[in-house]
């Protein structure tokens, strides 16, 4: 009887702990963030994220635009397709095609990022691992949590386990 009560309590009292479906994240989101450097310089950035369904999974496309003091604009855009991994809530990046035309992961030993995604609760996380020429490693983590108005984004980067950057902002669903 206690086991049945415990199961009911988990199911009914903790709905936030249950993973959301990827389709709940589909949409286009925009916002901005101020990047603050160690010397005190501030670099405002416009940001956007688009999450869409694909034939075999989903695509995450994100951009950041930095406007320099002299009027120049620097735009970076990344686009990664994810497919099921065979494990609930974990997705493999389909970043290149093998000789048979199947989507496969990049090889981090060749200087390319190894990328995967997961959904835990209301958060879609994309991880990227890089191995630098000297053997150092860098981990980047993009946590995108559903909110009433869009997504709460927390980006963190670590090199050899040491934090090197964190950005936090809210993106509004268009």
Notes on the protein architecture:
With 174 residues, the chain is mostly beta strands. Helix content is 7%, strand content 58%. It contains one helix and twelve strands. The chain has one helix at 2-13, and strands spanning 27-36, 42-53, 57-67, 73-84, 90-93, 96-97, 103-104, 114-120, 123-131, 137-146, 150-159, 162-173. Strands 1-2-3-4-5-8-9-10-11-12 form a ten-stranded antiparallel beta barrel. The chain has a two-stranded antiparallel sheet with strand order 6-7. The chain is globular, with a radius of gyration of 19 Å. 13% of the residues are buried.
Which terms summarize this structure?
1 helix, globular, mainly beta, ten-stranded antiparallel barrel, single chain, about 5% helix, disordered N terminus, about 170 residues
Helices and strands, in N-to-C order? HEEEEEEEEEEEE
Task: Report the count of strand segments.
Answer: 12
- Structure class: mainly beta
Radius of gyration, Cα only, in angstroms? 19 Å
Q: What distance separates the N and C termini?
A: 48 Å
Helical content (DSSP H or I, runs of 4+): under 10%
Mean pLDDT: 85
- Count of individual helical segments: 1
Q: Order of strands across the biggest sheet?
A: 1-2-3-4-5-8-9-10-11-12
Return residue spans where pLDDT drops below 50 for at least 5 consecutive residues.
3-17
How does the overall form come out from the CA principal axes? Answer: globular
* Major sheet description: 10 strands, antiparallel, barrel
Strand content: over 45%
């Amino acid at each position: 009887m206690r086991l049945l009560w415990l199961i009911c309590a988990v199911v009914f009292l903790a709905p936030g702990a249950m993973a959301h479906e990827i389709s709940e994240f589909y949409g286009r989101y925009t916002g901005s963030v101020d990047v603050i450097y160690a010397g005190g310089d501030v670099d405002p950035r416009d940001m956007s994220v688009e999450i869409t369904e694909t034939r075999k999974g989903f695509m995450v496309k994100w951009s950041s635009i930095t406007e320099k003091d002299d009027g120049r604009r620097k735009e970076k855009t990344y686009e990664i397709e994810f497919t099921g991994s065979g494990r609930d809530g974990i997705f493999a990046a389909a970043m290149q095609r093998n000789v048979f035309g199947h989507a496969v992961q990049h090889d981090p030993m060749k200087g390319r990022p190894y990328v995967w995604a997961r959904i835990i609760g209301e958060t879609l996380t994309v991880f990227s691992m890089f191995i630098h020429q000297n053997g150092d490693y860098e981990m980047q983590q993009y946590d995108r949590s559903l909110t009433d108005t869009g997504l709460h984004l927390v980006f963190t980067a670590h090199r050899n386990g040491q934090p090197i950057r964190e950005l936090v902002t809210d993106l509004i669903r268009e």
